Amino acid sequence: MKILVTGGTTFVSRFAAEYFTKEGHDVSVLNRGSRQQMTGVHLIKCDRTQPGTVLSGQYFDLILDITAYSEEHIRALLSSGVSFKDYIFISSSAVYPETNPNPFTEEQPCGHNTVWGDYGANKLRAEQYLMQHVPHAYILRPPYFYGIYDNLYREAFVFDCAILNRPFYIPQDGEMRLQFFHVADLCRFIGILTDLHPDKHVYNVGNHTTVTVKEWVGLCYKAAGKEARFVSVDKTIPQRDYFCFYDYDYYLDVSAQNALMPTVIPLEQGLQEEFKWYKNNPDSIYFRKPYLEYIDKHLSFK
């Protein structure tokens, strides 16, 4: 296929561009050219909100839109003069109100999520605009992504704690549940959609099961060859000051994904791969939030 990947330089979009290039597809990436580019792809240099004429008259078998965070992003791309067969938009589970009953299903109403605020609201407006103008497009709603090229201080934060032989300061009893999805599984599922073109056009995507915070931290330490020691932190302490996830316990029903792709990468295996990559690429994190500084100043003697 001839594929256009929006982004292509960081985390999910970088992994996807590399994945489909290795699969033998002709991959172009759309970005502003401000970061180092991958080899083996074609750079289309522009701001996606002001593409000008760089896409006019171009055709792609697939537009893989990973960097659309608003209706404006979708509108500008669709108005650029580009033509395509398939369009897949990576949205977010943040489009579901946190008050929905678990597990969140694709049939549940979407709306404002107070945990995610404008991020979820803007993703939802982007979805709505896309479906109004490209009704055959596919929309994917993931939980938390993980894998190599991750530039967010989540797994990397736990890895740092493990490398430094620190105890891990965990919210309360550590029973809050998390759901993940490996970026390689995302790419495999995209390949399935373009091969099969199922009638369903909105999919929750993610691992089949959730894990508790305590289990996830334990697996991250294990990937680093360590065993986690835990210190429980009281609910009165703001969780986001010392921990990398919101106090938000939810999970997605991914049965429709499972019907098309029954297996996913085990979380333990995926975290081991990510740790090996992170150990050799410690500068991959763009912003290290000061969790450790907060812990040392406010929690370590409590």
Description of the structure:
With 302 residues, the chain is α/β, with parallel strands linked by helices. The chain has helices spanning 11-22, 71-78, 118-133, 155-163, 183-196, 213-223, 255-260, 267-280, 291-299; strands spanning 2-6, 26-31, 42-45, 59-65, 83-90, 138-141, 144-146, 168-171, 177-178, 180-182, 202-204, 211-212, 230-233. Strands 3-2-1-4-5-6-11 form a seven-stranded parallel beta sheet. A two-stranded parallel sheet has the order 7-10. A two-stranded parallel ribbon has the order 8-13. Helix 4 (155-163) crosses helix 6 (213-223) and helix 6 packs across helix 8 (267-280). The radius of gyration is 20 Å and the shape is globular. The model has no long low-confidence stretch (mean pLDDT 96).
Strand and helix map with partners:
Blueprint: E1 2-6, H1 11-22, E2 26-31, E3 42-45, E4 59-65, H2 71-78, E5 83-90, H3 118-133, E6 138-141, E7 144-146, H4 155-163, E8 168-171, E9 177-178, E10 180-182, H5 183-196, E11 202-204, E12 211-212, H6 213-223, E13 230-233, H7 255-260, H8 267-280, H9 291-299
Parallel strand pairs: 1-2, 1-4, 2-3, 4-5, 5-6, 6-11, 7-10, 8-13
Antiparallel strand pairs: 9-12
Helix pairs in contact: 1-5, 2-3, 4-6, 6-8
List keywords for this structure.
302 residues, 13 strands, two-stranded parallel sheet, Rossmann fold, UDP-galactose 4-epimerase, domain 1, seven-stranded parallel beta sheet, 9 helices, alpha/beta, 18% strand, 2 domains
